[in-house]
Amino acid sequence: MSPNYQATASAPVNIAVIKYWGKRDTKLILPTNSSLSVTLDQDHLRSTTTSRADPKFTQDRLWLNGKVDEIKPDSRLETCITEMKRLRKKTVEDKDPKAPKLSTYHVHIASYNNFPTAAGLASSASGFAALVASLSHLYELPVDASTLSLISRQGSGSACRSLFGGFVAWQMGTKSDGSDSLAIQVAPESHWPEMHALICVVSDDKKGTSSTSGMQRTVETSPLLQHRIKNVVPERMEKMTRAIKDKDFDSFAKITMADSNQFHAVALDTEPPIFYMNDVSRAIIALIVEYNRLSRENGGRYKAAYTYDAGPNAVVYAPEANMKEIASLIIAYFPQKAGDFKDVLGLFGAEGAKDINK
Ligand code: ADP
Ligand code: DP6
Ligand code: CO
């Protein structure tokens, strides 16, 4: 009987506070600006992926949430799998002639998301991070998370940040081969454990415009994007990094909300315009703005920060001490059975992609 080559890994989603939106190279997935995110908790929104290599397999195959997902030639999936096999050959098989030649076997991969796929909750981020992490365990690659982030980036840009837990930057890089466009950890979760996130699922429908096609249209048509990438994001990256290092929630909140607003402004500046938020999303913004205004009017500080990805669902970052109040405010204003508002979940995360078993 042939040996069993199989490994399972999971990866959580990450939600950006400085948004990635725009590619300078669509094949390698090189972004037009750097970005920064927080990786959420493994327990709530995550992808779990099992990979198996077997000389008897006749082709590479993927099942997503139990359904066959075709691996098209030259697709991002194919690129990630090919790159992982190449890394196996280079870092293991070429060095040790006795190592099994797993890079020559086909793989079967099964992945499950425990939350809505393609609904603006970053399934492409956890999905491609978990895929790369599971192949890395299967192939026993002696490489670090930043090296793996170079490959998951080629599956979905935001996926490179889910290889790490805590606060993570994706440095856009300058090289045309993409070798310096990778993720680094700005600070581990343990640096700022009071930081929590509340996910408000306004809608779990599949979004109308995928991130990939939406951002491409923005690059082609939006003058505001050019201003954003040249004049706004570089300074925000520095200020956000400092806010995280100093655990300065006021600055974190101001930059997070400003960047979410500008990302959605850039989507609106696209031709034809893209609307990711809906009326419920905007009402949640109004609620958080008012909550902060009341606090600050009374000499207090910012208490919460909203951010929206390419979809209507809100993510609210806040110190844990405020979370109960925020959750009850949201539930009071958006009763779950009465409106669109589907779910409220408190979470925060730590670890990035992790090996589950072999
Ligand atoms: P989202 O907002 O959920 O990230 P995207 O439009 O960016 O939406 O990406 C959704 C796509 O990501 C899916 O259609 C699928 O191709 C891919 N994807 C999602 N989850 C996984 C997974 N677990 N494994 C592999 N690919 C995945
Ligand atoms: C709004 O990473 O999903 O969530 O690279 O084309 O797969 P592709 O796009 P994707 O875009 C994410 C956009 C965002 C912002 C962010 O996560 O930084
Ligand atoms: Co995505």
UniProtKB/TrEMBL annotation:
Nucleotide-binding as UniProt keyword: yes
Keyword Lyase: yes
GO molecular function, one term: diphosphomevalonate decarboxylase activity
Organism of derivation: Crepidotus variabilis
Entry's Gene Ontology BP terms: isopentenyl diphosphate biosynthetic process, mevalonate pathway; sterol biosynthetic process
Family of this protein: Belongs to the diphosphomevalonate decarboxylase family.
Top enzyme class: lyase
SUPFAM superfamilies in the cross-refs: GHMP Kinase, C-terminal domain (SSF55060), Ribosomal protein S5 domain 2-like (SSF54211)
Protein name: Diphosphomevalonate decarboxylase
Highest taxon above the source species: Eukaryota
Annotated EC: 4.1.1.33
Catalytic reaction annotation: (R)-5-diphosphomevalonate + ATP = isopentenyl diphosphate + ADP + phosphate + CO2
Keywords linked to the UniProt accession: ATP-binding, Kinase, Lipid biosynthesis, Lipid metabolism, Lyase, Nucleotide-binding, Steroid biosynthesis, Steroid metabolism, Sterol biosynthesis, Sterol metabolism, Transferase
Domain Mvd1 C-terminal per the UniProt entry, residue ranges: 197-358
Record NCBIfam families: mevDPdecarb
